[in-house]
Amino acid sequence: MAPLPDAALLLDQILAGIGQPFYALDRDFRFVLFNDEATRYFERPADTVLGRVVWDVFPWDREHERGRVLREAMATRRLLKGEILSTMRARLVAYCVFPLGDGIGAVLRDVSDRRDAEAALHQRTAELEAVLGTVPVAVWFTNDPAGRMIARNRRATEMLRVPPDERLLSVAPNQLFRFEQDGAVLPLDRLPLQRALRGETIDDELMDLVHDDGERRTLLIRAEPLRGPDGVPVGSVCVAADVTERHRYESQLRLLLDELNHRVKNTLAIVQSIANVTLKDVEPAAREQLSQRLVNLAAVHGLLTEASWEGAALDEVLRASLRLLEPREERVRLDGPPLRLQPRTAVTLSLAVHELVTNALKYGALSLPDGHVEVRWTVEGPRFRLSWCEHGGPPVTPPGRTGFGTRMIRQALAAELRGEARMDFHADGLVCTIDGEAPTVPADR
After folding, report:
1. pTM, two decimal places
2. 362 pLDDT band (50/70/90 cuts)?
3. Would you tell me how many other CB atoms lie within 10 Å of the CB of residue 147?
4. Which SS3 state, helix, strand or coil, does residue 30 take?
5. Which end is more exposed in the chain, N or C (fewer Cβ atoms within 10 Å of the end residue's Cβ)?
6. Do 136 and 169 belong together in one domain?
């Protein structure tokens, strides 16, 4: 058997290995042990402390809580634990005072960082609760990997009709409601929180919340997984906005717009019939020209009605104006960035392009089999530029008189765009350049 180490050496190694301030007092409250960590913590060398009474070294401790703890531990011979504010600095210290021989020993540990972290966490929690309590959307979430328990804010409690003092079980949804999508009841594994727990992100998805009394609410839902440091989902959060009234309004608006579109088409058909009867003695070409203009106007009105009169995509407006070319639309090549025009601009531009198409079919590039047209547009800030370039047609000369189409382009369209429209008759074909400020709407609408 190996010999036991020297007791004094063993004690020194133990005191050094504690890693926390440690001191021991005899029955007369004199320091008998004072390790290196205590020297650093109290900023006093051991040889200035050992052998002296604790009240002489730290006179302010006599009436302090720390003095009371030392006296109680010495008198009761019991182990005492707790936390106390240091008399030397504004630091919170955890203490463990225990009987040691006929005196006591004390181990100290600075826990101020933990206290500050807990205070910060409490503050952040209070802020989060305040935010969740005031936002007008429902929020429910879980940090349980199995998704069993769900916490929620006040709006979610009201929306789901869950008693405020109950916790909602996601694995057994409350019998007061069910989730539906496209008329089908969603199984548990397709509910937003369950999907997010598997790492899926649900972005702006519509679901119906149906209560047992038949009330149906339409929700716009987003859900995200909550991930741990390793990136693995450890929970999920779901946000839902009640868009029931908005959907009802949109549904009514769609019905109204459909009815309006139907009546506009009927009105245009009546106008066309009246025009045909009124102009029965006018040459057929003129009647046909007016009829095509009305058809073009109906087409662009249809585009705007489908978009709730919030605007129309430029390329769709152009294609609607190329219907005279069916099935030869590929002879007009379109090239430009996504752009949505305001309704009034869309209508005016559509009428102008219709005149260009008509002219190209009669006299320009589209009157010959190999002719074609290139339509390009660019957008630079508020400025809009569109060019209509004809190629492969018969030789072009400026017309002897200014017709309706030319006046439409040079005057009405230029005024609408607060710019100018030029028509240059090159030998290779007509080039129409439209330049101005085009009132637009966001392209993602």
Report:
1. 0.46
2. confident
3. 23
4. strand
5. N
6. yes
